[in-house]
Amino acid sequence: MAEAAISERTAEGGRTTVGDLPRAGEIFSRASGENFSVASLVLGRRVREHLLAVYGYARLVDQIGDASPGDRLAQLDTLERELDRIYSGAGPSGHPVLARLAPSIDSLRLPRGPFQRLIEANRRDQETVAYATFDELVGYCDLSANPVGELVLHVFGIATPDRIALSDKVCTALQLAEHWQDVAEDRAAGRTYLPAEDMARFGVTDADLEGHAARPALKELMAFEVARGRKLLDDGAVLVSRLHGRARLAVAGYVGGGRAAFESIALAGYDVLSGAPKATRLRRARATASTYARRR
To answer: Where are the domains of the chain?
Structure first.
């Protein structure tokens, strides 16, 4: 009913409205494709609802930036205005995803900064289609991925500067794993997340990213990038040993998902063009269990 109501709104004065944003059903249908389970049943109903609210917002922003028809920058502006409404106390937004988020923001006192950075990441995606250096790419991940990890820590009430710093490493690694898996898909969309400096180092050209199978130089480059991502993930995985209970389980799930993703690329022989290497649910579960059980 809520979605039917907002679908009747129309753009006024050239500005988009809430009705122009992607539908809630489109957002949550993307959950099954993630490298980890965002809201496992074992986390409990209360925590699960808050995590799904945060997750839904992140997916909504991504959907606008990646696949939404029309003026994406205008839609991101609309989303920012809706965020203003929530934080000003004007009441829940008309969009189901944002209406679901508003109570979590209120009850958990979630900071606005991470939500805003996700919008900025997708604004950057409309203007930047390639990255010259690895540091530039990491800077993008600080906007596109790290805010989600920070919000997860806030959901559990354990967000401290040192934990956020470790979470940032985990989330950046998870974002890199996704980029390394989706090289062909991103290229087809006109984006390249492999740093230009690394491509030059291994003798990989733009044309090499458009084939149906990776040639040796690209495989060597991907092996290098996967090793780099794994190191970053392992550095951040220290966070798991510093947590307890459901928070530990949740973060172990994220780390395990990342480890399984990197492993899937390696098992594919680092060929990311013949198909996006994705980890099976069993491989993710095993990696999560192993990560949870480790003492350090």
So the answer is: 1-127, 129-296
The answer to whether the CB of 155 falls within 8 A of the CB of 97 is: no
Please name every residue paired with 130 in a beta bridge, in sequence order, or none if there are none: 192
Distance CA 174, CA 163 (A): 16
Neighbour-count burial for 143-159, b at 16+ CB within 10 Å, e otherwise: bbbbbbbbbbbbbbebb
Give the whole-angstrom CA distance, residue 220 versus residue 93: 48
Q: Does domain 1-127 have CATH number 2.60.40.10?
A: no
Kindly report, residue by residue over 37-59, the tens digit of the pLDDT. 544 556 778 888 898 899 989 99
Distance CA 169, CA 14 (A): 40
Q: How many CB atoms lie within 10 A of CB 108?
A: 16
pTM of the model: 0.87
Rg of the chain (C-alpha set): 19
Residues in the chain: 296
Question: Alpha-carbon distance 275 to 188, whole Å?
Answer: 13
- 129-296 maps to CATH 3.40.190.10: no
What confidence tens digit (pLDDT) does each residue in 236-287 have?
999 999 999 989 989 999 999 999 999 999 999 999 999 899 998 899 989 9
Distance of alpha carbon 18 from alpha carbon 106, whole angstroms:
21
Tell me if 54 sits within 8 A of 109, measured CB to CB: no
Query: 59-96, pLDDT tens digit by residue?
Result: 999 888 876 666 889 999 999 999 999 999 887 667 88
Q: Which residues contact 253 (CB under 8 A, 6 or more apart)?
A: 36, 37, 40, 288
- Sole residue written with tokens 């997708």: 122
Task: Judge contact between 16 and 74, C-beta under 8 A.
Answer: yes
